[in-house]
Amino acid sequence: MRFLHTSDWHVGKTLKGHSRLDEQEQVLREIVGVARSHEVDAVLVAGDLYDTAAPSADAQKLVNRTLMGLARGGTPVIAIAGNHDHAATLEAYRGMAEAAGVTLIGRVRTATDGGIVEFSARSTGEPVTLAVLPFLSQRYAVRAAELIANTPAEHTGAYDQQLRDILASLTAGFRDDAVNLVMAHLTVLNGKMGGGERTAQSIFEYAVPASIFPVESHYVALGHLHRRQRMEAPCPVHYCGAPLAVDFGEQENESVVCLVEATPGSPATVTDIPLTSGRRLRTVRGTVAELSVLAASVGPDSLGDDYLRVYVKEPARAGLREEVTALLPNALEVRIDPEFAAPTTVSRPAAADGVERSPAELFGEYLGTRGVEDPRVEELFRRLHDKVL
Ligand SMILES: [Mn+2]
User: Fold this and answer.
1) Which CATH class is domain 2-274?
2) Residues that place a CB less than 5 A from ion ligand 1
3) Which ranges of 105-185 does DSSP label H, i.e. alpha helix?
4) Per residue in 5-47, pLDDT tens?
């Protein structure tokens, strides 16, 4: 069978206040075109369809139209909630989406209640078993493990153990004669971030080893990290990445959708189909004089309509920003190159080991400076922080 794997559309995401809905529309139309031209048997959307829990009507219209476009002609489309999506809203539209051939999974479900999606591949008749795991917050993971995997609350381990238990329960129904697939929205250890992810829900306590996926999986379709990458694992575990760079940190990512061929007898083969829609994000550096040369350049060096982050290699002065944006109207971010920035009197404490610390760790340090030693306070902070996000 042949299917498409995409994720992290982040429809509604703006860049420094600029709507990108038209670019999002172009790239999603491109994905629908890829699905049609390759006559895929299914489309897997691995979460973060939207950028916020309360997307605009225009954003919803675009996502609905895309899902229906993918499903047209009877192609099964299965989409799970990411950490940016409003899981309960996806669940609320589940029945209506089903009528359009779209399976929405907002919350973690048991195998018998939608946690496993089964269908036959149209092109080959092969049975397909797909285990679906939407984003699961730490706050809800204990309860979910209890519900899905019957793990008594007092016996649940850490987050990765809870996910392992849930996946084991969902994939228990994998069959030798079927194409066995997993789709999840989560962070795998050693995954490379694209740059635009919410740090707090991507690293530290939220990272799980790739070994939590059963080796019988023919393919594991992941969402959450925005960079296209294959993870080190005994079975094929892939992030397809975001189809449109959502922030300047992601400008080096190549945008693709994954076209996957799988059969019950062999591991999947994956072909990256490049996506070309949308404006590129680019970082440029130089003095005002150098930037004006850049602005005037034509041919392959032309900046085109790329969105720009500009580092000015001159000391700050009044009117500098206006000068730069007059030269480069697509500059969404203008900064003084650190080399020319005025020295600050207060330096931000850097982590000794060079590793970025989680909010919980920073709060723990703060408590230390106040002489507070109470694990309940740290736990409460973690829960509240999780809830706020
Ligand atoms: Mn995400």
Assistant:
1) alpha beta
2) 48, 82-83, 224
3) 138-149, 159-170
4) 999 999 999 998 889 999 999 999 999 999 999 999 999 999 9
